[in-house]
Amino acid sequence: MRRKLVIMDLDDTLIDTWGCITPHLIRQAIREMVNEGLKIDSVETAIKRLTEINNYSKTGEEAIARFLEELKTDQKYLEIGKRGFYNFNFEYEIRTLPGFEEMFTKTDAEFALVSKGDPQAQMEKMKKAGINPALFQKIHIVSKYNKKEYYKEIMEELGFNRENCFVCGDRYETDLLPAKELGIKTIYVQWGRGKIYPPNCQDVNYSITDLKEIVAIVDGEQLKEEIVILQNNSIQVKIYRGDIISILYDNTEFMHGGSKPKLIQTAEDQKGWNKSEIIMFPVIGPLEKYHVVVNNQIIPQDQHGLARYIPFEIIESQKDRLHLKQNHSADQLVQNIKFSSDKTRPPLLSWPFSYVIEKEIYLNENKIRVDFTIKNYSQDKMPFMFGWHPAFKTLGDKNRGIFHINNEKYPLSSVIKASQENIAMLIENAHVITYINEETKQGITISSAEFPKTMLWCPDDNSPMFCIEPVTKHPAPKESQYYFNKTDQGYGEGIEYLAGGESKRYSIILSPLKEISGR
Hints:
Elements: E1 5-8, H1 17-35, H2 43-54, H3 60-71, H4 77-85, H5 100-105, E2 110-116, H6 119-129, E3 138-142, H7 148-158, E4 165-169, H8 172-181, E5 185-189, E6 206-208, H9 213-226, E7 227-231, E8 235-240, E9 243-249, E10 252-253, E11 277-280, E12 291-294, E13 297-300, E14 313-318, E15 321-328, E16 334-335, E17 348-349, E18 355-364, E19 367-376, E20 382-384, E21 387-393, E22 401-405, E23 408-411, H10 412-422, E24 425-428, E25 432-437, E26 442-447, E27 453-457, E28 465-471, E29 496-498, E30 503-514
Helix pairs in contact: 1-2, 1-4, 2-3, 3-4
């Protein structure tokens, strides 16, 4: 994951200068000029009028000059008014902008600060607002408005390139334009004096009203880098951290979005299963006592094994092909996510063999081929079970969903019932399974020659998704701890094994379907 840097302005970007400080400064400016001889009818009326003028002026100095021109009085009062306007006595409350706390606590980005003004006054504003300077990797309080050289200095000193940086400020010309000229992404804060002359929307990358929006911006940019997109003329597939999270064919989404990052999930993605797909290795299904016995050794495991929790790394990425790899060293401990909600499960999982699982995703017209290669890097023979657990959208009314298997039809409702009563619907010797929603005439076919068995699963009536799971063996929970306990007759039925250095490949083809007829 690449580091991100956000360079912030201070006034009306981190602190509410406009709302907290400016009213006091306007009052000070009027009183300074009156004390030096400015003739006015009413102090309060003058304060009100200067406030109105300030609301459409670029600077306090410009507002005071216009005010004096309106009075047709001597411009000698301009310097006197400026003296009052820019005298920060800090006898007033200073607040941070909305979302300040969330911005710093809910993103892993690093922060720097570049602000124009008197160094002592600017640091005092931060102190008054309760802003800890330690939040920033670098602070520059500068005397001139063009901040470009300071942006460059910070990036070079902290080791960031422009693609991983943002500049956030309320003024386009002084805060954001210098960043834009450097190729840095810009975030316009709709606050304070910057709202008087807002930039054109096409001139900035992002526009916000609350600082917590920066969390979504930074994380969203990170997601753009992490989500891999494969595409050809027919189909688009998105992969996030090794999981296929989207299959888009003819503008229809076929994949359930449970594995999508929360930032981009829809309400429907959050229903049903919280994943889009997992691999099941070295066990499939639930385990009665949360362990298996391998060569008379007790090994802690949980439902569907430990490979689901080990990240994939990208080996090669092309326009229509992605090559991923997962490594596991013998006896490496893997955190069990299920332990967090159920303390009866083991907190850590292990497997006494070193292995690699390679995952390759290919596009061919409107088909997706997913290949898995398992290689045993241990000297001893490695027994295992293996399966793939992808989740697809029901693509319409669940009551109209039908599975076509070996010339038989199974309604989705029967799969839901089997899932609630018996883990899943267990299918034998079905190398091609097609699901069709008869309401929308959309569906998907999944085919594979290497898997002798399949499981169909849907958690409940409210889930807008289901799973078609090719597996090497159906689970049998009451026998689970003895899966890999070798006897004189060898391993039990359905247990795969690889000698040291051996590998095996499993291939699966997905075919999204639309406007199916003749069924």
